[in-house]
Design brief:
CATH topology of the largest domain: Growth Hormone, Chain: A
CATH architecture of the largest domain: Up-down Bundle
Largest sheet: none
Order of helices and strands: HHHHHHHHHHHHHHHH
CATH superfamily of the largest domain: MFS general substrate transporter like domains
Shape: globular
Distance between the termini: 40 Å
Structural class: mainly alpha
Number of helices: 16
Length: 383
């Protein structure tokens, strides 16, 4: 039984999240194998981020030149092998090269699969981006859990082989359908240049405002609960668990909500909910209240980035890959780069102040929501 285009692209989101979750779970074993200090691990993570950020703007042009399907196929196959590269790297230098490649292929696959999802949305005249990101969240959770199990009971090499085989099998199942759903023809004369209109950068800024709080919760919520609210190590993990779990679940309901109310109304409502949740978390006087705040924030933030990416892929006058590459580059800098500075700000002020301040970024999303009206195409009145 062949898969539909929607099922195929959902599997690619699952694999991309799975690979990132696998890497997150693998970091301690990776550091032990190469005898890396905490600062060296931090540098390796920066190398991964640099590979991602440098690749994203280029992929949009590559997609416009060669077509979404062929680029998605190549990057998906390459990305599926990268955990094996990292594991087999015999020294720090080659591990850095492998991590740069990992960041580049994962980020490139991210742009390509989002562009493909936009094409599927156009083909079936229904939003699918939120549920696709739901599969991405599930993949991340699955990758982390499987990594924890295999690295506890087996060696890193067995873990890498199993991860590569699982990723490869899912990609192989998804690839056959990718040839039939692309709606945009390749543009052979596309040049490597940034868009000369403001709109893609504004959409990227909206994605940035949505992604920064997500990155902050990912990196710092557990430390916030432990250091400032006196939570135990176990209780501290519930902050991101509540946030990511709620976000993953709600993403599977986000598409019909957006289809009914339109992208702009949905964006505003979700941003207001996320603002309230982050404000509760940042001003909480107990771990329980903070966890409830992060849960509410995850509920609201579930739809923000998917809607922004749908808008970027539907901007008038731009090939989907071009708009998406700019939105993902700017947006993911808020997820991969900006959170590194929040630790320094917390030393000067507090994590409470950081999370409370980040709530203001979500108010900007409320005021700028009209920018994502193109996410709906012609299917609904975004209002």
């Amino acid at each position: 039984m062949s898969l539909s285009a929607r099922q195929s692209v959902s599997l690619l989101f699952l694999v991309n999240g799975f690979l990132l979750g696998t890497w997150a779970g693998k970091i301690p074993a990776f550091a032990d194998r190469l005898s890396l200090s905490e600062s060296s691990v931090g540098l390796m993570i920066v190398v991964f981020g640099v590979g991602s950020i440098l690749t994203m703007p280029v992929i949009g042009v590559v997609i416009a030149r060669f077509g979404t399907a062929i680029v998605t196929k190549f990057l998906s196959i390459a990305a599926a092998t990268t955990i094996l590269w990292i594991t087999l790297s015999p020294n720090v230098a080659l591990a850095g090269v492998a991590l740069f490649a990992f960041g580049a292929f994962i980020a490139g696959m991210d742009v390509a699969m989002n562009a493909f999802a936009v094409e599927v949305e156009k083909k079936i005249s229904k939003p699918i981006m939120s549920s696709c990101h739901g599969f991405w969240s599930l993949g991340g959770l699955g990758g982390a859990v499987i990594s924890g199990y295999f690295l506890e009971f087996f060696d890193p090499y067995s873990h890498a082989i199993v991860t590569t085989l699982l990723s490869g099998l899912v990609v192989a199942a998804a690839l056959p359908q990718l040839k039939s759903s692309g709606s945009s023809a390749p543009l052979k004369k596309t040049k490597l240049a940034f868009p000369r209109v403001l709109l893609p950068y504004l959409v990227g800024f909206v994605a940035l405002c949505a992604a920064m709080p997500e990155g902050a919760v990912l990196d710092w919520s557990a430390l916030y609960l432990k250091q400032e609210l006196g939570a135990s190590a176990l209780t501290a993990t519930f902050a991101f668990g509540a946030f990511s779990g709620t976000m993953a679940i709600v993403r599977f309901f986000g598409d019909p909500i957006r289809a009914h109310y339109g992208a702009v109304r949905t964006m505003r409502a979700c941003a207001i909910i996320a603002f309230a949740g982050l404000l509760i978390a940042g001003t909480a006087n107990s771990a329980t209240i903070a966890i409830a705040g992060f849960l509410i924030a995850g509920l609201g933030m579930s739809n923000l980035v998917p809607i922004a990416f749908s808008a970027a892929g539907n901007l008038p006058g731009l090939a989907p890959g071009i708009g998406l590459s700019m939105a993902t580059t700017i947006g993911y800098s808020g997820l991969l780069v900006a959170p590194a500075s929040f630790g320094y700000l917390a030393e000067i002020f507090s994590f409470s102040s950081v999370f409370t301040g980040l709530a203001a970024a979500l108010l900007l999303v409320v005021f700028l929501a009209q920018i994502v009206r193109h996410a709906d195409g012609n299917s609904v009145d975004s209002g």
